[in-house]
Amino acid sequence: MTYKMIVLDLDDTLLCDDLSISPRTKNALMEAQEAGVKVVLASGRPTSAMLSVAEELCLKDYNSFILSFNGAKIVNCQTGNEWFSSTLPVETVHQLFEVSRRENVWIHTYVGDKIVTQEANQYTDIEGDITKLDIEVVDSFTDAVTEPVVKVLMLEEPEYLVKVEKKLQQEFAGKLAVMRSKPFFLEFTEAGVTKGTSLNSLIQQLGITREEVIAVGDGHNDMSMIEFAGLGVAMGNAVDAIKEKADYITDTNMNDGVAKVVEEFILNKLPVR
After folding, report:
1. If you classify domain 90-190 with CATH, what class do you get?
2. Per-residue pLDDT at 271
3. What is the largest CA-CA distance in the chain?
4. Smallest Cα–Cα separation from 99: which of 44, 141, 54?
5. Spatial distance between the Cα atoms of 203 and 242, rounded to a whole number of angstroms
6. Domain 5-85+193-266 is of which CATH architecture?
7. Considering Cα of 240, then 242, then 248, then 249, what sign does the dihedral take?
8. Cα separation of 61 and 128, whole Å?
């Protein structure tokens, strides 16, 4: 099979634990782009927190794309134009705040280029470290959110958050997309918006078929694109649910898992044993 696109989650997939791209992985992706293969980044991160990775991989030069906010935005790296954008109404965000109080979990969202929360907490701090966005602790979450936002996150320790996820997936079925990105991040976007649906929209506009796409990820929010792609790949460090659905399991993010996929399936190099 000749693949024309590879779609990559960032954290714990493309990026090493220190948030860098390994030299082997970068070289493989640059060689793939030179061969005409689109490299697309797909993350739960805000767009602004993905730009440095896009710049490092020179996606602008190859007219490629970013799928940010779990697919709620598609951005053309060359022009900066949004090809797709989805938001949550203010009243929905306010409702989610009330739900977070009821479920006794923390909550934050994005206003401009800041993470906004009513209470400082360790999990919002993690998001700040990952995205490099400033955190603004406000007196009133609902007063701070006066315009539609792209997504909302609820946060707590993983074991408890799994229970909240199951409950809220039922409560908001057909109304919101509810999924975990990291074990302690529960994300809310517009109903029907996932990495998989955005990937489908993108390839239709580009004239690429799903069979010509590789998607690589590690977390629950990668499930939709891994199931959609012609070759769905789970990282060696992926959660078990992703490994069970994937067509192929590669090495971990710390052992050049993405590079090995590119070398074997795109560059047609023999696997390194």
Report:
1. alpha beta
2. 61
3. 57
4. 141
5. 22
6. 3-Layer(aba) Sandwich (3.40)
7. negative
8. 29
Beta strand pairing call for 114-117 and 106-111? antiparallel
Residues of the chain with pLDDT under 50: 273
CA 83, 72, 148, 47 torsion-angle sign: negative
Q: In angstroms, how far is the first alpha carbon of the chain from the final one?
A: 23
d(CA 82, CA 175): 24
What does the pLDDT read at residue 178?
Answer: 95
pLDDT score for 272:
52
What is the pLDDT, as a whole number, of residue 34?
Answer: 97
Identify which of 226, 207, 197, 213 has the alpha carbon closest to the alpha carbon of residue 6. Answer: 213
Domain ranges within the chain, ordered by starting residue: 5-85+193-266, 90-190
The per-residue pLDDT for 79 is 95
The per-residue pLDDT for 78 is 95
Per-residue model confidence as pLDDT tens digits over 73-118: 999 999 999 999 999 999 999 999 999 999 999 999 999 989 999 9
Which residues are part of the catalytic machinery?
Answer: 9
Q: Could you give the CA distance from residue 94 to residue 143 in angstroms, rounded to a whole number?
A: 9
Taking CA atoms, 133 is separated from 14, 46, 111, 245, in Å, by 20, 9, 11, 33
Only one residue has tokens 């690589």, namely 216
Q: Say yes or no: do domains 5-85+193-266 and 90-190 share a fold.
A: no
Distance CA 61, CA 259 (A): 20
